[in-house]
Amino acid sequence: MTVVRPAAWWRLIGHGWRHGWRDGRLGPALLLLLLTLLGACWLDAQRRGAFERDRQAAEAQDEQTFAAQGARNPHSAAHFSRFAFRPMPPTMVLDPGVLDYGGAAVWMEAHLKDPPNARLAEDRADLGRLAELNVAWVFQVLAPLLLVALGFETVVRERERGTWTLLLTSGVSKARWLTAQAVALWLPLLALLLLIALLLVVIVPTDGQWDRGGRTLTWVLAHALYLAGWTWLVLWVSIRAVGSRVALVVLLGVWAVLCVAVPRLAATVANQAAPMPSATAFTAAVRRDLAQGIDGHSPAADRTKAFEQKVLTRYGVARIEDLPVSFAGLALQEGEEYGNQVYDRHFGHWADQLATQARWRRAFALLSPLPALEPLSRAAAGTDLATQLDFMQQAETARRDIVRFLNEDMIRNATGREGGARDFDYLAAPDLWTRTPRFEYQPPAWTGPAGSGWLDVALLLAWWLLPMAAAFGALRCAEAR
Amino acid sequence: MSKARLGTMMAWDLKGLGRQYVGRAVLLSLLLVCVLATVLGIGHQRQLDRRHGDALDAAAQARTALLERLNGPEANAVLPISARLHLLLPPAALAALAGGRSLLDPQTGTGTAFTQQQNLFRDYQFDSPDALAGGLFDLSFVIVVLLPLWVIALALGVSAEDRASGVDRLLAAHGVGPVRWWWARSLLRCAVLLLPPLLATLVLLAASTGADWLWHGSGVLVLTTGYLAFWWNLSSWVSSRPGNPGRPLLVLLSCWALLVLLVPALVGSLTRQWHPPPSRLALIAQARAAEIAGHARSTELLGTYSHDHPELDASATANLPEWARTGFLVARAVDAQTAALLEQFDAALAAQFEAVSRWQYASPALLLQQSLVRLAGTDERTALAFRRQARASFQQFRERIGALTLAGQPLTPALLDSLPRFDWQPPQRHWLALAGGPALLLWGLAGLLAVTTRRALLMLRAPA
User: Fold this and answer.
1) What is the pLDDT of residues A69-119, one digit of tens each?
2) Per DSSP, which regions of B93-231 are E strands?
3) Do the chains contact at B131 and A54, CB–CB below 8 Å?
4) B4 CA to chain A: closest CA distance, Å?
5) ipTM of the predicted structure?
6) Any chain A CB within 8 A of the CB of B101?
7) Residue B464 pLDDT class (50, 70, 90 cuts)
8) Measured between alpha carbons, how far is residue B58 from residues A291, B55, B108 in Å?
9) Facing B128 at nearest CB: one of A104, A271, A277
10) Which of A287, B284, B411, B419 is least crowded, fewest Cβ atoms below 10 Å from its Cβ?
11) What are phi and psi of A85, to 5 degrees?
12) Are A121 and B132 inside 8 Å of each other by CB?
């Protein structure tokens, strides 16, 4: 086994760069990509800064408003409740993911679990989502196109010029030469990935809650793997193609299918294969379960009667008026507990449908690497569906805490004893609002790809290794010929 | 004589296209993609129809339930605040062809006496954010994004191949000029490329319940043929220029990436940057602050309302629960406070839309995409019109039931029938106004490129 000195490697890699530079493609292409990346990075950093300023101001104002309600019945306050506002992670500059399409605010109202509202996409002109100017899009769609444009004739050019045979007989290891060509194509893009990661640290402030380092590293690695797969695919086609034009046509066709058509097809097919219930049907089903019971045979009136009997027995009294606590408060909390079961059931079905859709999309990863890279990239950037669901779940937990806290105050104090008011006539002291639990979003800790994320990693590894193996195999065949 | 030869050559070209690997691949993939887009488009339209049907059923059931109460033993206790206003936007006629914003914007809303304008559309659909972000694989996507790639594949290098194979000399010997041959071949190949999308359009028109065959069909036809002609002529012109045979493909693909991907992405980003909407979160916070302030001064609000409505009998509200009176008055007060901010959202979206309308001329792809969503009725203008009409209708409805409630009138079936209802009026637009201008521009560009191609072909033919 011969040991190759780094200088020899760099000579081979430099040869590839020199060629690209001389034919006038490498410089302008990289410059264009760099400018596009900087522009996208700056635009999203600005957008995130403005959103976070607005969110913090809205949160502060809402806190003030809730605290300044004055004397009020706790149940009225539970209806008014609080809003949960979703923060934008600093890593959204890498991939905005579904941020604009998942709601940014949840009303944590008594009795009702709302889906998030205030979708940012509603307030912007829609251009058919043909393309989005963001860092992830540049690396996932434009960078492979650049690799095609720079690398399609790497091998086929040598053959057309008649220098391929010369190369085969020159003593340079063909595998080493090919690897150097791959590195020459891939390295500038890796440098751009690292530059953007560095830029993220410099231009986007963070509150320390998001694990920016780990997330950025995962994001860079996933994209480096994806681009390495593209590099080897380009070289494989370049080895196999009979002419440079054929290589270019094949590679561009493959790029159009893999980067443009398949991701969109995957999203549409998944949405139709596992369709979501309409909002009207969903609400009607929830109302039906609340009114008739989850089993359909325990109407709300029967449940209330049974609960009343249970409470009277527990406190050993014969009449509601003799209870040492507020029955209205107890009934409200009982209603919440039942409602929580109903919502858990229906939102559980909804989450199952989302998971089915995700599986459908992942099935398309057999046709294109993007359905595997996209979820990984979004998860690392904290802008994926799982993070959105995590926000919803945390908002729901906070909603239950807030409503329970306010109901418990009513249970304890709205008893009508010692001259106090009873049930809904009771007014809580204003200091209750400052003691009410708050919603504070805790971003999920980043421990690398979780669950099905590893399947995406495996698919990306396959995407890198298969074209590489195919390229070396094709090289051996070419040598044999 | 040459006419017959030209026909023979065209038939020969068609046969050749069927025999060539590239020709077969282009035709089969185009057919496959059009079939997929048609099936998925119809699926999308059905999804919208189902949602609309569910909302209509729910509205009818709510009305029936209310009428039962009004005809029941406790009819006198039913207050006007029990009435609901259902705001429904019917699915766009051609959402199957160009989905546009059809999944993004609220299509239904419910208004009561206590609803605030900013909460009118809070019943969101439960779509997956991933599906919304991914966009729709519909026929408009196929035509705008993918069709140019097939055009490039079929148009590229035909002149060079003719020169290399000697076909140009053969044709010249038979009196068929290069320009005439190019025209004949262009018509033939464009017809082949146009046929699958047009058949798909016809299927989608047939599957749609609200589409006007003449209106929508002719709009799609002139736009698609104009766009196809533009790309065909651009490809022919670039590939008729002498030089490295690999360069035209690179040039055309760069043009495609620039016009189909980069320019729309840039226009989208810049228009959003230039006309940013206010913050939805700020609107929520402002409305909630106004709500608490409204509750604190409910007596003052009632006094102001009574002052503005001298016909109101003050004693009529004596038996009215306080929450009913306050809820209505506070909702009005919140709307008064947030009206300016709410209007800014519509103004920002309208300004973005206007900016896109100006900048769409920078890219034929953007021009076609915008024209198709306008034709289909899934554009910003329809969304804005729905929002504005719904708000105006809701304003009238709430004022009416509020006045009835404060006047102490019970709700009766006759009164329920007399309440304002929402009647959607689609923006009046003739297809010529929507598709005429963009089609003219696309055809104009195609014409210019045809002239340039003709010149290039004649120069190639001219002796050195």
Assistant:
1) 989 999 999 999 999 999 999 999 999 999 999 999 999 999 999 889 999
2) 108-111
3) no
4) 34
5) 0.89
6) yes
7) very low
8) 16, 5, 11
9) A271
10) A287
11) -105, 130
12) yes
